[in-house]
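Study this one:
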Amino acid sequence: MEGLIRAGIAHFYFVTIHPFEDGNGRIARALTDMALAQDEESSLRIYSLSNRIMEERKDYYDILEYCQKSSGDITPWLLWFLGSFKRAVTHSNSLIANIFAKAEFWGVHAQTNVNDRQKKVVNRILGAGKGGFEGGLTTKKYVSMAKISRATAFREIADLVMKKMLIQNPSYDINWPENRI
C-alpha cells in the first residue's frame, strides 16, 4: 500500500479506536510519522505533518468527526490528510527558501558593520521572509523592536539604507537579492 495512504489510514483508525484516556492524538501523530519514515526508509524528514495537523486542528477534528459518523467511507479523510501533507511540504519548502535567502543576505553583508540593534531588526525582517513583515519596516516599528528613541531609529535605518541592506518603498524592506540586480 502507498505509504501516505497507509499513514492516513493508521492515523484515522487509531484516533477512532481511541484506546487511551489521554494522549491519543500525540500517539496517532507519532504512528503517522513512523509510517512515513518506514515508507521513505528514513527517519529524517524536512517537513512536519504533525505540526501541520496541529495548525489545522479545527478542520482536522471536523473531518475526523464527519468520517467517523458517516457510512464508513474514509475517502474525505484521506483527501484532507493528503492535502495536509502537501501543505506541510509546501510550508517546509518556504522555510528552507527563507533560510537560504537569509544566508545569502548575510553572505553579501558579512563585512558590513552594523550594531546589535540593527542586526536584531534585520534578522526579524529576514525571519518573516519576503513580503512577510506586515506593512514593512517603519521608524515606529524600529523604535518598538530596538527600544530606542525615534531619532536614533531614524539614524540607524538611514545607515542600513546607505549600506544597501534596506531599501525604501515607501516603508523599508530588506534589499533582497533580486533587488540588487
Summary: The CA atoms of residues 74 and 147 lie 53 Å apart.
